[in-house]
Hints:
This protein is mainly alpha-helical. It has a domain at 9-99 and 143-153: 3-Layer(aba) Sandwich (Rossmann fold), CATH 3.40.50.300. Helix content is 54%, strand content 9%. The chain contains 8 helices and 4 strands; from the N terminus they run H-E-H-H-H-E-H-E-H-H-E-H. It has a two-stranded parallel ribbon. A two-stranded parallel ribbon has the order 3-4. Helix 1 crosses helix 8 (157-168), helix 3 (39-46) packs across helix 4 (48-63) and helix 6 crosses helix 7 (125-143). The longest helix is centred in the last third of the chain and has 19 residues, at 125-143. The radius of gyration is 15 Å and the shape is globular.
Amino acid sequence: xxxxxxxxxxxxxxxxxxxxxxxxxxxxxxxxxxxxxxxxxxxxxxxxxxxxxxxxxxxxxxxxxxxxxxxxxxxxxxxxxxxxxxxxxxxxxxxxxxxxxxxxxxxxxxxxxxxxxxxxxxxxxxxxxxxxxxxxxxxxxxxxxxxxxxxxxxxxxxxxxxxxxxxxx
Length: 169
């Protein structure tokens, strides 16, 4: 599952995995456990390039696991190198883009920006909205390559899960 931060990737993936009785892996949490540092600490201490290399390494490690699972990616994961190609060319994998509009993302993220290294420095909703608008424009090229796109604005987790299940099965 991929999409911009705040789109609901982790929440929807976790619930969908429970419902389908398969494992859920959150890539950021997987990286944190493997590295012994939080994503914020990795960014601060080792930099974004180090993080992106490790992110790709651990993504490939997870893809080697042949067990059914739901994987929630970090917002930037599909946007670096040829990672989106890797995702779409991995057999038995369906990439799902959870798409939310800029205003929805702004409202969700403003409440939790201190926990997000890329936006923690933005003080106003307007600054955050502008940042998301620009960032989403840059990333949408990658996100829109997903095999399935699900719009999440105004939908509950259950409604999003039902739509995904309908399209998958």
